[in-house]
């Protein structure tokens, strides 16, 4: 309960998008930038490619929403669900953040973080 993440709600499951072209399209539509294909792997992207697109004072409401979605994606991928490299974030979380950002509350984030922690502790103990 330290972070106050909801434990009731819809469970997070695997991605429905497959392939780099679909991920690039999702980044373009949801975050307003087109990532370089060299910065992408099958399921993750270089964090520096995501942070390369700052917001400016005269941004439109749509650009602010895109930037907000990108910041939430960075928090999810870099803080709650970190990659072992520390330089990459999972593309899957961007798929979860599609559409209205207020709907992100419907997911059981606390359960997902706990499951992710246990999964990685198990892998680390091998």
Automatic annotation (TrEMBL):
Cite the Aminotransferase-like plant mobile domain residue spans from the record.
Answer: 2-123
Question: One GO biological process from the UniProt record?
Answer: meristem maintenance
Q: Which InterPro entries match?
A: AminoTfrase-like_pln_mobile, MAIN-like
One family name in Pfam for this protein: PMD
Q: What is this protein called?
A: Aminotransferase-like plant mobile domain-containing protein
């Amino acid at each position: 309960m330290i972070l106050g993440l909801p434990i009731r709600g819809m469970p997070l499951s695997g991605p429905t998008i497959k392939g780099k072209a679909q991920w690039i399209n999702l980044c373009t539509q949801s975050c307003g930038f087109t990532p370089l294909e060299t910065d992408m792997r099958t399921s993750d992207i270089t964090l520096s490619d995501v942070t390369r697109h700052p917001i400016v004072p005269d941004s439109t409401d749509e650009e602010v929403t895109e930037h907000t979605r990108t910041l939430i994606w960075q928090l999810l991928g870099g803080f709650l669900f970190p990659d072992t490299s520390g330089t990459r974030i999972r593309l899957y979380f961007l798929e979860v953040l599609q559409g209205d950002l207020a709907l992100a509350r419907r997911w059981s984030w606390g359960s997902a973080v706990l499951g992710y922690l246990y999964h990685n502790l198990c892998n680390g103990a091998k």
